[in-house]
């Protein structure tokens, strides 16, 4: 029979976890409810969670967009950038990780250290050199700076993630594939990649969410309004020179959260498996 003290401790634990979860989720809950408030009452009633008057005007005005460009166009721009960049990130990082984990060549350890070193380099340090470089290439005001670099395994985190998985795959599988006539490319695509599913899902989720939320890169390289991703288009709702439609901005923020939430919900099991298998959990 369970002792009363143990039961009380268990109840107290769940109550504490629910309270902490509510505190973490409250900003999102507030944003969702505020998106249904009239735009002129969003901040005057900020202390009230439930709207006094419910309205869909914020969503209607938000989807109208700007300069004849509807907001769904900005969402499609974000989707294109995120999907293409994520494919490049996952594929290139897996290839580099395969070379560092499975192949033996000179300076391999030095290259691995350099890859890890990129994780310690603040991205802000590279902003000016990268902009000058892309400007010389004629890539400004295009999606190229937002997509092309990620096809060259520039994020050491994902390389390390894939290496952690590959190191746990028995090398006997490689030897068996070689005896069957597989080349290094055949081993990678037919043997290694199918076993990397948890890591691929984990990398895909993180990469997609990071690219979807990327504001600074789009601000630097995209200047035409019709090519704005959603993260950059949201700032158009606030104009210090005229009036700002905060209700529409909050409504479109809620819409912009949907893809990330859906991806996390669908692949939550694989994400947890990938994080636990790679040692990302504390």
From TrEMBL:
Subcellular location(s) of the protein: Cell membrane
Region forming the signal peptide: none
Regions that span the bilayer: 12-33, 74-98, 110-134, 146-166, 187-210, 246-267
Biological processes annotated in GO: transmembrane transport
Major place of residence: membrane
Key word Cell membrane present: yes
Keyword list, A-Z: Cell membrane, Membrane, Transmembrane, Transmembrane helix, Transport
Pfam families: BPD_transp_1
Gene3D superfamilies: MetI-like
Alphabetized InterPro entries for the sequence: MetI-like, MetI-like_sf
Membrane topology category: Multi-pass membrane protein
GO cellular component terms listed in the entry, alphabetical order: plasma membrane
Domain ABC transmembrane type-1: 75-267
Family indicated by similarity: Belongs to the binding-protein-dependent transport system permease family.
Protein name: ABC transporter permease
């Amino acid at each position: 029979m369970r002792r009363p003290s143990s039961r009380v401790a268990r109840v107290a634990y769940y109550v504490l976890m629910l309270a902490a979860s509510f505190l973490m989720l409250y900003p999102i809950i507030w944003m969702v409810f505020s998106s249904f408030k009239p735009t002129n009452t969003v901040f005057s009633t900020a202390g009230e969670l439930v709207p006094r008057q419910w309205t869909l005007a914020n969503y209607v005005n938000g989807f109208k967009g700007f300069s004849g460009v509807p907001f769904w166009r900005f969402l499609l721009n974000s989707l294109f950038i995120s999907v293409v960049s994520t494919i490049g990130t996952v594929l290139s990082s897996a290839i580099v990780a395969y070379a560092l984990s499975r192949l033996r060549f000179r300076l391999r350890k030095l290259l691995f250290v350099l890859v890890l070193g990129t994780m310690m380099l603040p991205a802000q340090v590279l902003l000016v050199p990268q902009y000058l470089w892309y400007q010389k290439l004629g890539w400004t005001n295009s999606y190229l700076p937002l997509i092309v670099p990620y096809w060259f395994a520039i994020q050491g985190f994902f390389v390390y993630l894939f290496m952690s998985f590959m190191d746990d795959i028995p090398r006997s599988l490689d030897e068996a594939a070689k005896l069957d006539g597989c080349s290094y490319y055949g081993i990678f695509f037919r043997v290694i990649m199918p076993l990397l599913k948890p890591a691929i899902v984990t990398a895909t989720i993180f990469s997609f969410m990071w690219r979807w939320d990327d504001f600074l890169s789009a601000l630097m390289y995209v200047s035409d309004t019709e090519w704005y991703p959603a993260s950059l288009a949201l700032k158009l709702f606030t104009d210090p020179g005229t009036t700002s439609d905060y209700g529409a901005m909050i409504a479109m923020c809620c819409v912009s959260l949907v893809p990330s939430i859906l991806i996390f919900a669908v692949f939550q099991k694989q994400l947890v498996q990938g994080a636990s298998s790679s040692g990302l959990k504390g």
